[in-house]
Amino acid sequence: MNDRPDPKADGGATTPVDVPASGSDPEDPRAEDEPTGRRNARGIRNRLERRAIALFGLGTILLLVVLFYYPVATVFVEAVVVEGAVTLAVFLELLRDPFYFGDVARLFAGESPLAVASDLLSSDRRIGIVGFTAYQAFLSTLLSVALGVPAAYVLARYEFRGRRTLRSLTVLPFVLPSIMVAVGFVATFGENGTLNRALGLVGLGPIELMFTLEAILIAHAFYNAPLVARVTTAAWESVDASAIETARSLGASPFRAFRDIVAPQLYPAVLMGAALTFVFTFGTFPIVLALGGFELATVEVFVYRLIQDLNYAEAAALAIVELVITLGILYGYLRYEANHVVRSRGVRPLPRRPLSPPSLSLRELVPRAGIAIYAAVALVVFVSPIVSMLYASVAGPNGLTLDHYRFLIDRQQTAAAFQVRPWPAIRNSLLFAAGALALALPMGVVVSVLTTRRYRGRKLVDAVAMAPLAVSGIIVGIGLLRGPVFGIELAGWQITMGGAAAIVAAHAVSCYPFVVRTVAPGLESVDRSLVESARALGASRARALYDVELPLVWPGVVAGAAFVVAISMGEFSSTVILATGTDQYTMPVAIERFIGRRLGPATAMGVVLLVVTSISFVIIDRLGGESFGI
Amino acid sequence: MRALASEESDRSLESLESRSRSSSAESPTEDRPIAVDLADVTKRYAETTAVDDVSLSVREGEFFTLVGPSGCGKTTTLRLIAGFESPTDGTVRFHGEDVTGVPPEERDVGVVFQNYALFPHMSVGENVAYGLNFADPPGGVSDDERVRELLELVDLEGMQDREPDRLSGGQQQRVAIARALAPGPDVLLLDEPMSALDAQLRERLRIQVKGIQKELGITTIYVTHDQEEALAISDRVAVMRAGAPEQVAPPREIYRRPETRFVAEFVGDNNVFEGTVRSLEERANGGRRAELEVGPETFAVDLAREAAVGDAVTFCVRPENLQVSANEAGSSERNATTATVRSAEFLGETTRVHLEWHGQELLVRTRDPLSGDVAVGFEAEDAHVVAIDRTV
């Protein structure tokens, strides 16, 4: 009688304990396909509504094919089709070229691995462009982690005024246009930048940071350290205080408890930040273009250069090599994540210490002194570029001036045909952002719905839909330019797409994954029984989405929209390609054209861009700062 | 069992009742037409079979309960009826019509979930009215009137404008019931609706749910893991295990004549014995009485089924049918033996005592405290045989 099944064992069990987590799917395709018996009379509208989600899904896939997959495919085809024949010659040439692969290229050329390895270990090794790209990405990752983890420590473990604001500011780099950041860095670290002026005041000689690896690394850290800090803070905050208290009560010292309980929960987050940082910095473009020039070219910059030289085959081959490396790292990381990341919400987070020391003991002062040093470094890296840009936009030889803004207005009236005028840049940026929003928002919502339901083939849909995140803007730009913009022959019809439409398409494709990132987590967390209740009451699947789910995830939708506007405003890679030689340039493109010649107007334009993206940031922060999964 | 005491509620109930499918809520349900029918329904997932070849019929106006431990397939069965899942095999029929593959919004069902699933961004009134977007309220009343009627039915009159999350758990669940009933569904499906509530509230709400069901005469399928609740509320109960019903019968029969050892042990407390037939004796009334060797003892048990000497017999005796007395000498009754008190739980009106008897635990109920060795016995008629394993 001891084995009597205890009904209480099930007590309070949450909803469908009987349903295995896998494969349970109210949206079984068969359920949608079979004709209804009884209530057929509800009419065509109802039937359309029943398939609304499928129709929208098809529409999105179609758009993706036309605006992304087809153009990108045309670029990649150039790498393997030479004069009508499929060949790997371009690739092999590329792989054997020491210019790209350094000493490793000799490996592909058939030299012995031992000889190559010994050369690589010697001091006069050559690493080539790909090697340099990986090298700077690696160093950027180290620097980002070094700057990001202390920030996470402060944000997760200390209480001080402005902590929440600081925490939400870690999302800002995502919406700051990289070309604007580059302007900020020139204004800070350039010959006449803030840093050298400050050094001059205390009698130190000027230092040359522009066009050095250091400048690029610092700029990359500016972008990515906040990301590392963000994911690590989240992990730290989800550590359950009672787990540590248990460890302490079992005899562990504070250090031991940290090592055994906290650290294992932080590693996966730090690794995630590092993996993403490496991928982002491996594909870096505007920063290196503006701060490194062609002397310190990375793969992406060189792809751009090859395209400018109309060497499409080699550009495509190089882009594919880049894509393979990036995807390889992402795949490796995702495999790790699947096995290691524990997503537990701390029932009771660790208590925060006050930042101002409660007593003047050594134990209290030492960590806070470290935090003070860190704060000084952070000020230089994260704050000075923005402040310097703001300052440079109003700084003249004789004190403060509005000359640079006046220059923009004058230029508007007097510019020659080949010169960049400010107003079209602002107008285009706004128009393209609106267009991108109109496309990306519905696409993002539909893909969110499709990727949060369970059905066979969901992973495929997920991969197909999120691929635009992995393909560089340059490739999308060149694909759209050489495909739809130059014209596609389809069944005897010549189809062409305007440059403006192509820019909107490129922006929409690169932005909508961010809508997915802000909307999907919300949708995922909407209780399934809410949707089921609506459906049992007579609502179609689409109607339930509209009536129940969307109102509940509305903040995520708005935050996604703000992302789209901000990223579209700041998009540079594809825009610079599609806008070349046209008057479709946007603010970032205009900044890039100013930056070489006149820093002042570039900073003034940068301030305009900063204002617009800051508004987006405020919207994101107010409506969904915590909820999105980036 | 009237759930609603107030006169106002009763008046509104009359109006609802006159419109409902069956006006004679008091009549037995056996001769009614079948409302919901599952034929050979199987639901398989990648690794598991949640529902395994289930055939069930629920009659119009019947209160039918699926009960079983977690993982037995009861919730999946309900979801197959609601249309949230499609069966891998088999057919689901509503009033004889095949609805397999028909989406839930076209099935005319009302569903109530354990977690209430109220739309948090809508008021109580909007929640109840939601289904009226897709169907006219029965009886030709306006939407507003219908909402008022139903809120009265569940004792929440005047709560239209409240936010759902400002209500208590019990109130939220009653809103959920009102919402499910508003469009006048054919079948009401309730998936563990009381599990999230505390014990007292659960009993009150269960009386109210049963009352509403009777008043409306609506076909109701109810899922619970609580066997006591199942017995208290249902016209018929299906005890499920491993994806299929072990027994489908009215509550009294389930309790008194369980057909399998699982049902015997799952429903209520029970003492199960396994023995071997020593001898058989035909009785005047046509039954058989067997002498069974159970451990070192010999018990006499009535057999309703065919058996032979040497067969293994499993039978059970409810705790209330085990007589126990402190007098360890044993009574003169036939099936008498001695056991040792291990522990006792004071439950209020009675005490549940755990005894040890030849390595097996026995449960008995007493008024007086017991300790040490005690005499235990039972009548042959009170032993209920659940299995006979024929050796020959």
Features:
heterodimer; A: 630 residues; mainly alpha; MetI-like fold; 2 domains; two-stranded antiparallel sheet; two-stranded parallel ribbon; 30 helices; 3% strand; B: 392 residues; Rossmann fold; OB fold (Dihydrolipoamide Acetyltransferase, E2P); six-stranded mixed beta sheet; five-stranded antiparallel beta sheet; 9 helices; 20 strands; 23% helix; elongated
Kindly describe this structure.
Chain A has about 625 residues and is an all-alpha fold. Helix content of chain A is about 70%, strand content about 5%. Chain A is built from 30 helices and eight strands. Chain A has helices at about 30-35, 45-50, 50-80, 90-95, 100, 105-110, 115-120, 130-155, 165-170, 170-175, 180-190, 195-200, 215-235, 240-250, 255-280, 285-290, 300-310, 310-340, 360-395, 405-415, 420-450, 460-465, 475-485, 500-525, 530-535, 540-550, 555-570, 575-580, 585-595, 600-625; strands at about 80, 85, 160, 355, 395, 400, 490, 495. In chain A, the strands form four sheets. Chain A has a two-stranded antiparallel sheet. A two-stranded parallel sheet of chain A has the order 3-4. In chain A, strand 7 (about 490) and strand 8 (about 495) form a beta hairpin. Chain A is globular and about 80 Å long. Chain A starts with about 30 loop residues before the first helix and ends in a 6-residue tail after the last helix. Residues about 1-40 and about 625-630 of chain A have low confidence and may be disordered. Chain B is an alpha+beta fold. Chain B folds into two domains: about 5-265, Rossmann fold (3-Layer(aba) Sandwich), CATH 3.40.50; about 270-390, OB fold (Dihydrolipoamide Acetyltransferase, E2P) (Beta Barrel), CATH 2.40.50. In chain B, about 25% of the residues lie in helices and about 35% in strands. Chain B has helices spanning about 5-20, 75-80, 125-130, 145-155, 170-180, 200-215, 225-235, 250-255, 260-265, and strands at about 35-45, 50-60, 65, 90-95, 95-100, 110, 185-190, 220-225, 235-240, 245-250, 270-280, 290-295, 295-305, 310-315, 325, 335-345, 350-355, 360-365, 375-380, 385-390. In chain B, the strands form four sheets. Chain B has a six-stranded mixed β-sheet with strand order 6-7-8-3-9-10, with helices on both faces. In chain B, helix 4 (about 145-155) packs across helix 5.
